[in-house]
Design brief:
Elements (H helix, E strand, L loop, with lengths): L7 E6 L10 E6 L8 E11 L3 E7 L9 E11 L2 E11 L5 H13 L7 H13 L6
Length: 135
């Protein structure tokens, strides 16, 4: 994640085993240059190599009690290449309805700035495998 997500500042594994279901680590995010960094506990709650990964994040500085963030990554073959879907679900976020509406509007009609994270991730994979066609 350090290589493709600029908001990830540090990753500390709790053990040095191969990734598997139940694998745990601490991850530090900083959402913008002047924001306070926040460390969360992360766990692989679903892991199917080369197919599916679900990571659950809990804790963090000033986060509401019970907040859970789940990142889902699904890989599927498509047109001779690989299609990656990322879904992020935030439960008990503490974000009020007006801010949620604003986020939805920005996501729906806003224009991204910079290179999307998953494009960077794709480029890393393609450069390391020598294969093109990851979508």
């Amino acid at each position: 994640m350090l290589l493709w997500n600029p908001k990830v500042k540090h990753v500390s594994p709790s053990c040095f085993s191969n990734p598997r279901q139940g694998y745990r680590y601490a991850i530090t995010y900083q959402m913008s240059g002047n924001a306070i960094a926040s460390e969360l506990e992360a766990e692989f709650v679903h892991f199917e190599p080369l197919s599916k990964l679900t990571i659950r994040h809990t804790g963090g500085l000033a986060s509401p009690p019970g907040r859970i963030i789940e990142e889902n990554y699904d890989l599927a073959e498509r047109n001779g290449g690989t299609f990656l879907t990322q879904t992020i679900c935030i439960r008990n976020s503490g974000i009020n309805i007006f801010l949620r509406l604003l986020i939805w509007i920005i996501q729906k009609w806003g224009k991204p700035t910079g290179k999307p994270y998953l494009e960077t991730f794709r480029d890393i994979i393609e450069n390391n495998t020598g294969k093109k066609g990851v979508q």
